[in-house]
Amino acid sequence: MTTTILVVDDDDAHRGMLRMMLKTWGYAVEEASDGDEAVAAVREKSFAAVLTDVRMGKVNGIEAMKQILSYNPSLPVILMTAYSSVETAVEALRIGAYDYLIKPLDFDALKATLARAIEHSHMGVENRELRRQLSEENKSPEILGRSSAITSMLAMIRTVAPTEATVLVTGESGTGKELVARALHSQSLRKDAPLVTVNCAALAETLLESELFGHEKGAFTGADRRRDGRFKQADHGTLFLDEIGEMPFSVQAKLLRALQQGEIQRVGSDKSEHVDVRVIAATNRDLRKEVEERRFREDLYFRLNVISLEVPPLRQRKEDIPLLATFFLSRFSERNHKTVKGFSPQCMDLLLHYDWPGNVRELQNAVERAVILCAGDLVMGPELPVNIINAAGKDFIRPSEAPSSLAGLPLEEIERRAIEETLRETGDNKSAAARKLGITRATLHKKLRKYEIEKGENE
Question: Where is the Response regulatory domain (predicted)?
């Protein structure tokens, strides 16, 4: 399939030179001599990228880019200019330019920039198609990815899910181990029965035993009635034991008995009850090391580890970041009544540069913050946490530094500040502020009342 670049320049000679160079690199080329022609061309045809001059006659490159991105926010637009002012560069990046090149052009830099821009463009198309396919299949809709690590894991889930095997899910915190457990249950023969979850790290030893196996009335102080445990609640279904590595040693012996014999005993009872439960366990610890250091029973480890599924960290599957980020953006835009359409190419570069020590959970939190702070159609980059911006390095050009004073603030405080700053920028014009914030005027007035922000007279 031929990759087509739209070249926009009112200088015939320069446009011709670019046409020859791009064709030499294997691209097909369409041309426009002004911004209005470029906008019309984008509406009629599909392009992998737009390469446009800034200073032109009727419609300049900045204005043309605004219209192009309003029509297709994911189309990379690269600006060219002989005027290397920082203000113009910042404005271009703020609006959503993929990159900014200075005339006379460095052709090596142009070739590399085009290659990156087209890769972003193709990735966006592939991600949209993958999301459509996942939606149609209705299988593991939130385990999104196109990386080999994720596709292999999904294939393993499809193989293991219909069996009765106990599964041990391992991986770093924030990788999505609970999503794997849900997928295993939803694709199993037990899917019509309950999936019951227990966080083994959240309860003290005595409470955990009661939580798992239940208790008789009077078994301990506060046990004023008989209670079913999680094993009983999950009968004929699936029990997900999260953070299994945190389970006290004494409870491990009773769990092993339940797994081996299919029987449980309530706290305070001397009678056993039969249960039919499939167990899925998860941990971010190295259970082999825990066994060696006698903090975890070896026999229980082997009983749990019939099938092992490792969830890869996000830094090892960075090609999945655009898809995951877009998924979270859609979710939080809807939840916060905003109309954020996507990420600028420069912002997506920020996300791809970062190593995500908190994995998918950290990405989710970063996107939620960005959506709340976003004042336009696209997340530009400064809305992200400062540590993500700084990880891109000194050579990354960004419109403005994200205010460090926001770090660690509650999201409601961040939202309040964003509303106040937008009102200042719009001269307290509520209608204009609501448009910039991507919310309705009625929603803005509700938030003004919620945060007790003084109302002005302008509408």
Answer: 4-118
Considering just the CA atoms, what is the radius of gyration of the chain in Å? 28
Tens digit of each residue's pLDDT (9 = 90 or more) over 362-382: 999 999 999 999 988 889 888
Does residue 181 register a pLDDT over 70? yes
Q: How far apart are CA 291 and CA 246, in angstroms?
A: 13
377 and 341 Cβ atoms separated by less than 8 Å: yes
Q: How far apart are CA 79 and CA 99, in angstroms?
A: 6
- The DSSP annotation for 413-435 comes to HHHHHHHHHHHHHTTT-HHHHHH
3-class SS of residue 141: coil
Amino acid at 39: V
Residue owning tokens 């003084």: 454
- Report CA-CA distances (Å) from 198 to 29, 139, 242, 389: 59, 23, 6, 37
Q: Tell me the C-alpha distance between 241 and 169, whole Å.
A: 10
- pTM for this entry: 0.62
What distance lies between CA 235 and its chain's CA centroid? 34
Rounded to whole angstroms, the Cα distance separating 231 from 267 reads: 13
